[in-house]
């Protein structure tokens, strides 16, 4: 019994330290790579579960209970907010659909749609923390390219905030709505649990000001996009993303000078 008590106390101390660190990183909006989630296939390595057990365990438990609550109140694991555009949570794979593209906004869960999506983009974000404006643009261009081949899934943990933020940018980039505000209203009308916090609204406003309002002569189709298949190596993934970012900067920079 004393040993069990000691182990329990040590685990609680570990959990407090780990969650304190993550809370600090959350407020600083950095360190999303800490958990080691892989960019190419969304897998979370075993060492992450062992090293950060004090974070993974309660996070998994909370999300599972939240999922059970959603089922009780008939909140779908994912919703088609516009034809071919889906917003959902980490259990979106339960739909059993195949996706032309998946945008994953979690850093804390393995990708459930890894075996059912042709193309995969991971933007690691803490819960409640939106992607940067440049990342919103990256996701929107990726999703628009994938949408030409089929349905697109954009998901976070619960299908509320992070996924809604990115979907707003996607729908504007696709020309379905003129502004992120209009896109959000449309998403909200079809998935009532969707919401945006202050940081998410600010990120969308900054994205719209930089990539929509300031570049009317530089449509999405002029920006070169390179889609990395889900089985590509991590080295190839990062190399392609770096080349894409460089070319995009040259094109956008040239359009601004005009």
Report on this structure.
The chain is built from eight helices and five strands. By secondary structure, it is an alpha/beta fold. A five-stranded mixed β-sheet has the order 1-2-5-3-4. Helix 4 crosses helix 7, helix 5 (162-173) packs across helix 6 and helix 5 (162-173) runs parallel beside helix 7. The chain starts with a helix and ends with a helix. The model is unreliable at 217-232 (pLDDT under 50).
> What is the N-to-C succession of helices and strands?
HHHEEEEHEHHHH
Which secondary-structure class do the elements indicate?
alpha/beta
Question: Uncertain runs with pLDDT below 50, 5 residues or more?
Answer: 217-232
Q: Output the strand order for the largest sheet.
A: 1-2-5-3-4
Distance from N terminus to C terminus (CA atoms, Å) equals 75 Å
Radius of gyration: 19 Å
Count of distinct strands: 5
Tally of helical runs: 8
């Amino acid at each position: 019994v004393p040993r069990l008590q000691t182990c329990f106390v040590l685990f609680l101390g570990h959990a407090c330290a780990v969650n304190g660190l993550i809370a600090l990183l959350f407020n600083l909006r950095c360190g999303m790579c800490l958990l080691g989630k892989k960019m190419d296939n969304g897998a979370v390595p075993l060492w992450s579960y062992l090293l950060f057990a004090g974070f993974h365990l309660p996070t998994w438990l909370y999300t599972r209970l939240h999922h059970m609550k959603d089922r009780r109140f008939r909140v779908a694991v994912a919703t088609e907010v516009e034809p071919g555009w889906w917003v959902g949570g980490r259990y979106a794979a339960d739909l059993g659909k195949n996706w032309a593209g998946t945008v994953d906004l979690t850093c804390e869960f393995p990708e459930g749609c890894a075996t059912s999506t042709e193309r995969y983009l991971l933007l690691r974000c803490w819960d409640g923390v939106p992607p940067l404006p440049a990342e919103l643009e990256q996701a929107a261009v990726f999703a628009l390219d994938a949408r030409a081949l089929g349905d697109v899934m954009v998901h976070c943990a619960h299908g509320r905030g992070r996924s809604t933020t990115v979907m707003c940018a996607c729908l504007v980039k696709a020309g379905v709505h003129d502004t992120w505000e209009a896109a959000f209203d449309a998403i909200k009308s079809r998935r009532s649990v969707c919401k945006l916090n202050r940081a998410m609204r600010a990120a969308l406003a900054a994205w719209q000001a930089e990539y929509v309002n300031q570049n009317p002569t530089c449509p999405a189709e002029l920006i070169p996009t390179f889609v990395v298949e889900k089985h590509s190596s991590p080295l190839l993934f990062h190399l392609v993303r770096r080349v894409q970012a460089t070319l995009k900067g040259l094109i956008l920079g040239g359009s601004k000078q005009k």
